[in-house]
Specification:
Blueprint (H helix, E strand, L loop, with lengths): L4 H11 L4 E7 L2 E6 H17 L7 E5 L4 H12 L3 E5 L9 H6 L4 E4 L2 H10 L8 E4 L13 E3 H14 L3 H8 L5 E6 L9 E5 H14 L7 E3 L7 H14 L2 E4 L6 H8 L3 E3 L2 H16 L3 H22 L5 H23 L6 E4 L6 H9 L4 E5 L9 E2 L12 E2 L4 E4 L4 E5 L6 E2 L3 H7 L6 E9 L5 E6 L4 E2 L9 E2 L1 H9 L4 E7 L6 E7 L1 H10 L7 H5 L2 H19 L9 E6 L19 H7 L1 H9 L3 E9 L5 E12 L11
Parallel strand pairs: 1-11, 3-4, 3-5, 5-6, 6-7, 10-11, 12-13, 13-14, 25-26
Antiparallel strand pairs: 1-2, 8-9, 9-19, 14-15, 15-16, 17-18, 18-20, 20-21, 22-23, 24-25, 26-28, 27-28
Helix pairs in contact: 1-2, 2-3, 2-6, 8-9, 11-17, 12-13, 12-14
């Protein structure tokens, strides 16, 4: 698109000044902000920023949950030609030091006292950081630090300047061009320091419009913005596409109220990673386990009907008169109330991305009438690379290339992408940029995959993670750890898995159980437990996990390419993997190499054939305290199967 974010905001304010642009829930009540009110707020902030010394190309970190004034602050910075950098609000303070110093950040806009405390704590290590602005003043009355201001102060000062220089802001917005840098997003830093991914107005808005056109989005959509703005997925859906389409973005009161807010808003356009859909389904199944026998039987009967006819119905295929009548009855008594209870009664388009979604989970949502689809993209591609058409949604693919995208597969099996949505480069890192962008403009995704006979893209794993089994019965077999991990995570009882096998004679896995799902399962069987560590090591829980592992092995045995990746041994970890402990990224991706080093004793025990292993691990608690968790873990063998088509 040949425009910029501030110009789009002004266009909406001119065309539909009184229409709602944003809603925020505060003290249980939804408050609306019109496009004209947003324009006024942005103007006040922009003038205030200018008075504070903000210049073109300055970097501004934004830290907090989705809040209207944080959105306005980003627009205000972009109006002056400055560059917002959203950071994860749940990161520990030390994780902000590298991005702030790397980008020489002078200005920060944060949500509340928690974020202010973090930035004040690291300010001595961040010499460039001189101005910190906060949205929520609660708890900050007695803070007197130099350079700390409220957004109320910023707006008041900006309002006075706007009255004195009425043409200033419009002139600044006119200077901003589509190919100017619009935002920067830092990668999760799985293997080292994070990299700043630089995007222009054109690259972000080109992909936002491509996605909007693909699904026929209009200004009438309702979106619930509850994922971190630092995640490019949320940023595209609730910021870039918001300004592209002009729909309403709704900001929940808190993370704890999201499920309630979801039901109250009833979004028409919804986006979430698979773990959110998994969590919602787990809660449904837990409630059904506690229901009366009649309700459970009714639920099971109509879910079987949905499984048989629902996906075909969603794909526009005929399900016959009897199937249609049964499905309509099921919709009346089960599917409709269930969609309403989940908050999905109005969802017209729903997307999941970030990780593979289990076929059963994917089928469940589509079978009850929710148009759930998958997409493929990354921070570097501004998200939209592949999308699934409404009638071609399948669990084992990530869709077809959307408008303006070219895809090819290298001789090594790596997916290469070319589009107008590609990153401009990595900030201050030309070497890393040259590694991913070739001379012809192709971006190397680092993902291994292929285009199937229907033109859909299939992802196998990260190229660097695809390895080979060495030695043993499966010598030379392909090993794709992420593929194995995802198949395990498709089970409601398994929350996380970490697989090893490259260069080894067999595949071994470390597993996190889903505490809520397994806890409910244990309670229904009168199995007492004292907490996660105790529950994880119960022999009954190991048997439950073993059943899941062996089902995965049976599935892998039917896959000619990955039959050698069957799991030989596993253990259930004594603690949940946590980003605060360095085991996951802030987007909840496994840091496999770090975990291998941290739990080297466990990895060795798995491959040495031990049946138990003592482990003690340092942990960080939510209140900032440090401690340790120890346990003697059981290690268990799993049954493997002869690959289909191979003689036993």
């Amino acid at each position: 698109m040949d425009t910029t974010f501030p110009r789009l905001m002004q266009d909406h304010a001119k065309q539909r000044p009184n229409d709602t642009a944003l809603r925020e829930k505060e003290y249980g009540i939804w408050q609306s902000m019109s496009w004209s009110a947003l324009q006024t707020m942005v103007a006040q902030m922009a003038h205030g920023f200018h008075q504070a010394g903000m210049q073109r190309a300055d970097h501004v970190v934004v830290v907090g949950a989705n809040r209207p004034r944080l959105y306005a602050a980003m627009l205000a910075a972009q109006s002056l030609g400055a560059i917002p950098i959203p950071l994860y609000q749940d990161a520990v303070a030390t994780e902000y030091v590298f991005p702030i110093n790397n980008a020489e950040v002078r200005f920060a806009v944060v949500e509340n006292q928690e974020q202010v405390d973090k930035l004040l704590d690291i300010q001595p290590d961040c010499a460039s950081l001189t101005h910190i602005y906060f949205d929520d003043p609660r708890g900050l009355r007695n803070y007197k630090q130099a350079g700390l201001f409220s957004l109320d102060q910023l707006q008041s000062e900006g309002e006075r300047m706007a009255a004195q220089a009425p043409g200033f802001l419009q002139a600044q917005i006119a200077k901003c061009q589509p190919d100017d840098v619009a935002a920067m997003f830092f990668t999760s830093g799985t293997t080292g320091n994070p990299k700043g991914v630089v995007h222009t107005h054109r690259s972000l808005l080109d992909r936002a419009k491509a996605g909007a056109d693909f699904d026929h989005l209009t200004h009438r959509e309702e979106v619930l913005a509850y994922m971190p703005l630092a995640w490019i997925g949320q940023n595209i859906f609730s910021y870039a596409q918001w300004l592209c389409c002009g729909y309403v973005v709704n900001c929940p009161e808190s993370a704890e109220t999201v499920t309630i807010d979801l039901k109250e808003i009833g979004p028409t356009y919804y986006f979430a990673p698979p773990r959110v859909f998994e969590g919602l389904l787990t809660n449904v199944m837990i409630r059904m386990e506690d229901a009366s026998p009649i309700k459970r039987s009714l639920f099971k009967f109509f879910m079987d009907v949905a499984k048989t006819h629902g996906p075909k119905r969603m794909d526009g295929e005929s399900i016959g008169l009897v199937g249609g009548l049964l499905y309509a009855l099921g919709d009346l008594v089960i599917y409709g109330p269930l969609r309403n209870n989940l908050g999905f009664s109005r969802v017209r388009v729903g997307y999941t991305a970030g990780e593979a979604i289990g076929p059963d989970l994917f089928s469940f949502y589509r079978s009850i009438g929710i148009n759930l689809k998958q997409l493929y993209g990354s921070t570097e591609t501004a998200v939209f690379v592949c999308l699934q058409p409404d009638n071609q949604a399948r669990a084992d693919t990530v869709g077809v290339p959307c408008a303006g995208v070219q895809i090819k597969v290298s001789d090594e099996g790596e997916i290469l992408v070319k589009s107008a949505g590609l990153l401009k480069g990595y900030y201050k890192n030309p070497e890393a940029t040259a590694e991913v962008l070739d001379a012809d403009g192709w971006y190397k995704t680092s993902d291994a995959g292929f285009i199937d006979a229907h033109g859909h893209l299939k992802i196998i794993d990260r190229v660097k993670d695809v390895g080979r089994i060495q030695g043993g019965a499966n010598d030379g077999a392909m090993f794709a750890p992420k593929y194995v991990e995802n198949k395990l995570k498709f089970f409601q009882f398994i929350k996380e898995a970490v697989a090893y096998g490259d260069g080894r004679d067999k595949v071994c896995v470390m597993i996190n159980i889903d505490f809520d799902a397994v806890g409910n399962w244990a309670e229904r069987r009168n199995l007492p437990y004292a907490g996660y560590t105790d529950l994880a090591q119960k022999s009954e829980v190991y048997q439950l996990v073993l059943d899941c592992v062996e089902q995965v092995n049976a599935d892998l045995a039917a896959d000619k390419l990955l039959a050698g990746s069957q799991i030989s041994r596993f253990l259930v970890l004594h603690k949940e993997l946590d980003a605060d402990d360095g085991e996951l990224t802030r987007t909840n991706k496994v840091r496999r190499g770090y975990i291998a080093e941290k739990y080297a004793a466990l990895v060795s025990a798995l491959y040495e054939g031990k049946t138990t292993q003592y482990i003690e691990t340092a942990v960080k608690f939510e209140d900032g305290r440090s401690g340790s968790v120890s346990a003697t873990l059981a290690l268990m063998d799993a049954k493997t199967f002869t690959p289909v088509g191979q003689a036993a």
